Hints:
The chain is α+β, with helices and mostly antiparallel strands. The chain has helices spanning about 1-20, 20-25, 50-65, 125-130; strands at about 30-35, 50, 65-80, 80-95, 100-110, 115-120. The protein has one domain (about 1-130): Roll (Nuclear Transport Factor 2, Chain: A).
Amino acid sequence: MSxxxxxxxxxxxxAFARGDxxxxxxxxxxxxxxxxxxxxxxxxxxxxxxxxxxLDGVFTRLGGDWDGFAAQPETLLDARDHVxxxxxxxxxxxxxxxxxxxxxxxxxxxxxxKVQKFQQYTDTKQFADAVKP
Length: 133
């Protein structure tokens, strides 16, 4: 099953990169629990429960606040019912024009072919500095 889990997560990043948000949300369990890194810009409503909460509280805000925001996966690590992804965020804050290029680690938990949980780890200071005028 773990090979399928890695492919599921790889497909999520591909869909996100194409702007296919419905495909991303379709990979989520109805009761998915999504956690942004402590002190991250969008951690104010942690945990986000359900696809609509993630869409409204994270994805829509990312699109509204950043130009060219991307999450580029570089390494996907198979850990049975977990997939750990190491990669890099990039984008330019619309309000300040400041760029980010920050490493991330994402831990995805999968059961029955759907994402049950997501945990983000990243350089929260770099993002905080990017939004300061």
